[in-house]
Amino acid sequence: MLRGVVSAEGVPTITLTIAGKDWPATIDTGFNGDLELPEELRDSLKARHIGRSTAALAGGQSVEEDTFIVEFPFDGQTVQAESTFVVGAGILIGTHLLREYSLRIDFVSKTVLLERS
């Protein structure tokens, strides 16, 4: 089980410890992939390039990106997940990574709960 908070801006976030550092991870229900990760984590997650993919963005835009398989620490386990890497300090968690979880976002109490189903 993972717990998090809803920020003042309404963003559901959990904190993940990866490579000895705490990282903010946004639960992005509009993202149907697995992960978008900071470039800084590429080596520590043993990223293996698997090709290029096209992602559909809001507003009808699309972007072509390099895609990788990573060994990602999540909820006490290491899972294989597909990821892209970007410059920045935040993680985006998509709905595909959460397919075995129940997600509860309570905007009133500003809490996030991820529980394996």
Description of the molecule:
This protein has one domain (2-116): Acid Proteases (Cathepsin D, subunit A, domain 1), CATH 2.40.70. Helices cover 0% and strands 60% of the residues. It contains no helices and ten strands. The protein has a ten-stranded mixed β-sheet, with no helix packed on it. Strand 5 and strand 6 form a beta hairpin. The N and C termini lie close together (10 Å). 22% of the residues are buried.
Keywords:
Cathepsin D, subunit A, domain 1, globular, mainly beta, single chain, 10-stranded mixed β-sheet, 117 residues
**Mean pLDDT score, rounded?**
93
H/E topology pattern: EEEEEEEEEE
Domains (count): 1
CATH topology: Cathepsin D, subunit A, domain 1
Query: How large a portion of the residues is in β-strands, by DSSP E?
Result: over 45%
The helix-and-strand class reads mainly beta
Strands of the biggest beta sheet: in what spatial order?
Answer: 5-6-7-4-8-3-2-1-10-9
